[in-house]
UniProtKB/TrEMBL annotation, chain A:
Keywords of the record: ATP-binding, Cell membrane, Membrane, Nucleotide-binding, Transport
Membrane topology category: Peripheral membrane protein
Keyword field contains Membrane: yes
CDD domains: ABC_NikE_OppD_transporters (cd03257)
Domain ABC transporter: 4-254
Lineage summary: Bacteria, Pseudomonadati, Pseudomonadota, Alphaproteobacteria, Hyphomicrobiales
Protein name: Dipeptide transport system ATP-binding protein
Keyword presence, ATP-binding: yes
Protein's organism: Shinella granuli
Cited PANTHER family: DIPEPTIDE TRANSPORT ATP-BINDING PROTEIN DPPD (PTHR43297:SF2), OLIGOPEPTIDE TRANSPORT ATP-BINDING PROTEIN APPD (PTHR43297)
Major localization class: membrane
Subcellular location: Cell inner membrane
Automatic annotation (TrEMBL), chain B:
Protease recorded as keyword: no
Family: Belongs to the binding-protein-dependent transport system permease family.
Any one annotated GO CC term: plasma membrane
Gene3D superfamilies, per database record: MetI-like
Domain of life: Bacteria
Entry protein name: Dipeptide transport system permease protein
Record-level Gene Ontology MF annotations: dipeptide transmembrane transporter activity
TM segment ranges: 9-30, 95-121, 133-159, 198-218, 264-287, 307-328
Length: 284, 334
């Protein structure tokens, strides 16, 4: 049984100019201990599909799926309060902008202990000890002192560590990392990725990394899903994707990487391929 | 934190000086002088007029009068009424509790109704609930106070007979002033029915005075809330599995309160200005009515002293708001 299973997920937003389909027929599976990367350009529906799976989209979004299960439980049939018992506890998510993702009005200690208060029976003292332990595990120095700090007193990398610590607070079975390194400096990116991979291995949890960075994919993922304009273009294990991409879009995407550049200008995908060609060449 | 407080206090000094200058000069810009108005219909010889002006010290050059006044202020002397000869500060302290009671009730009503209304309107954005709340708020904001007060009096007091027309408490009750707050004093007095009477007298003035602040607070809360609800940390809060009540009521509201607290602080000024009209409509014996009467009599000392004291109250409220602001928004504190 897969940890998370999604079949034919569709997300539509009601807009002034009629319904807009942001995700169209996406299917995926993640097992325990597996790292899945979802890769694609901006607007390819990577984040929206995961937010939809967690039930975090605003009410203006219409989400449908043939199958949407977590650990064998149907997330669509679940009441909102039952889903909230899973979200934050068994499925956790971290986001792109770590500083903006933390509430500026509360200390980071409050924000991490809040998850423990909601999802566990730990006493106040035990929650604090657990928070300190979590801060240590994500590499935040002076955890006792740091717990009393506000997000604006910390750097982006530190805030992302806080986000990761908060996400791991209840030992989740699945962690969804939505572009976890995009907003960070290159050196910090590497540290955060290494930390994520280390914690993933230690906890044996499933990890979905949403990214547009093929370097991140190569370094972390077991399996990769390529998305374009809300549709799934290709799914493959990471080695075959890089060595022998099957879809025309993935080939074009890889040839657009700076390290593969041959001429003065990088090739772009849209000048080579039309949408129809991309969708026709999808391999699933 | 102490530095923050002292910084704010230091700003008060030039503000206070500025207000004293404005208070002193504006009342003198009005045509007529207190001696002329005191004489009324009676004819007064120019000699007698000059003599009285000299007695009151009003014939001295303006800047000497101002510095004289300022020197008095520094020693806590706000002068005495030209008409009643009573010290301005004594009158103010006696009348201010009535205004404070009314203003406090009004701001409590405005905050207690305005914030939830704004929050619900934002959460239910675009629905009939949102549109009707904001429509009512716009009407409330646009309503002239004196007209709104008269409408309420005609309907509730005149037509339905539910509430009294004017005053603070029924003439049936009499008890000593302890705190100056009629609601509290009536409770202390232990007289049966006194508290209820004081409450019924307070209802209409409170509604009238609360209307504009209520509308402003509701609209400001809604727009602040809408902005905050789109923030990343609200998404994080939902991703933690928090209940919608906690997400909106704790994570979003705390941030949305930052601009709303500023608005509430600014409304205190509006409230005291509104109190002048409301007190006049309902014959509420507070400083608003006292100030209006003094302006008509050109009672310079009362008008300038009253203005200074009202300004002091507003400055204190603003200081409290600033401190609250620092408390709500840690980015200012740290």
């Amino acid at each position: 049984m897969s940890l998370l299973e999604v079949k034919n997920l569709t997300v539509e937003f009601q807009t002034a100019s009629g319904p807009f389909r942001a995700v169209d027929g996406v299917s995926l599976k993640v097992d325990e201990g597996e790292v899945l990367a979802i890769v694609g350009e901006s607007g390819s529906g990577k984040s929206v599909s995961m937010l939809a799976a967690m039930g975090l989209l605003p009410w203006t979004a219409k989400v449908t799926a043939d199958v949407l299960t977590f650990n064998g439980r149907d997330m669509q049939a679940m009441s909102d309060s039952d889903r909230r018992k899973i979200i934050g506890k068994d499925i956790a998510m971290i986001f792109q902008e770590p500083i903006a993702s933390l509430n500026p009005c509360f200390t980071v200690g409050y924000q991490i202990e809040e998850v423990l208060r909601i999802h566990t029976d730990l006493s106040r003292k035990a929650r604090r000890d657990r928070a300190i332990e979590l801060f240590q595990s994500v590499g935040i120095p002076n955890p006792e002192e740091r717990l009393g700090h506000f997000p604006h007193q910390m750097s982006g990398g530190q805030c992302q560590r806080v986000m990761i610590a908060t996400a791991l607070a209840c030992n989740p079975k699945l962690l969804i990392a939505d572009e976890p390194t995009t907003a960070l400096d290159v050196t910090i990116q590497k540290q955060i990725l290494d930390l994520l991979m280390k914690l993933q291995a230690e906890h044996g949890m499933g990890l979905i990394i949403i990214t547009h960075d093929m370097g991140v994919v190569a370094e972390t993922a077991d399996r990769v899903i390529v998305q374009y304009k809300g549709r799934q273009i290709e799914e493959a294990d990471v080695l075959s994707l890089f060595s022998a991409p099957k879809s025309v879009y993935t080939k074009a995407l890889l040839s657009a990487l700076p390290e593969n550049a041959t001429g003065e200008r990088l090739p772009t995908i849209t000048e080579k391929l039309t949408d129809a060609e991309i969708f026709a060449g999808a391999v699933r | 934190m102490l530095r923050f407080i002292f910084g704010r206090l230091a700003v008060l000094i030039p503000t206070f000086l500025g207000v004293s200058l404005i208070a002193f000069s504006f009342i003198r810009l009005l045509p007529g002088d207190p001696v002329m108005l005191m004489s009324g219909e009676r004819v007064m010889s120019p000699e007698r007029h000059a003599e009285l002006m000299n007695q009151l010290g009003l014939d001295r050059p303006m800047y000497i009068q101002y510095f004289d006044y300022l020197a008095g202020l520094l020693t806590g002397d706000f002068g005495s009424s030209i008409v009643t000869k009573r010290p301005v500060l004594d009158d103010f302290l006696q009348l201010f509790p009535a205004t404070l009671e009314l203003s406090l009730c009004a701001i409590i009503v405005a905050v207690a109704l305005g914030i939830p209304a704004g929050v619900f309107a934002a959460v239910k954005r675009g629905t009939w609930f949102d549109q009707s709340i904001m429509g009512v708020a716009l009407v409330g904001y646009s309503m002239p106070i004196f007209w709104w007060g008269l409408l309420l009096i005609i309907f509730f007091s005149g037509y339905l007979g539910w509430t009294p027309v004017s005053g603070r408490i029924s003439l049936m009750y009499f008890f000593p002033q302890v705190t100056g707050f009629m609601l509290i004093d009536s409770l202390i007095s232990g007289q049966a029915g006194a508290f209820k009477s004081a409450l019924t007298y307070l209802i209409l003035p409170t509604i009238v005075l609360a209307t504009i602040p209520l509308a402003v607070i509701a609209r400001q809360t809604r727009s602040a809330m809408l902005e905050v609800l789109g923030e990343d940390y609200v998404r994080t809060a939902r991703a933690k599995g928090l209940s919608p009540f906690r997400v909106v009521g704790v994570h979003a509201l705390r941030n949305a309160m930052i601009p709303v607290i500023t608005t509430i602080g600014l409304q205190v000024g509006v409230l005291l200005a509104g109190a002048i009209l409301t007190e006049t409509i309902f014959s509420w014996p507070g400083i608003g009515k006292w100030m209006v009467d003094s302006v008509f009599k050109r009672d310079y000392a009362v008008v300038q002293g009253g203005l200074m004291l009202i300004a002091a109250v507003i400055m204190i409220v603003n200081l409290v708001v600033d401190l609250l602001y620092g408390w709500v928004n840690p980015r200012i504190r740290h």
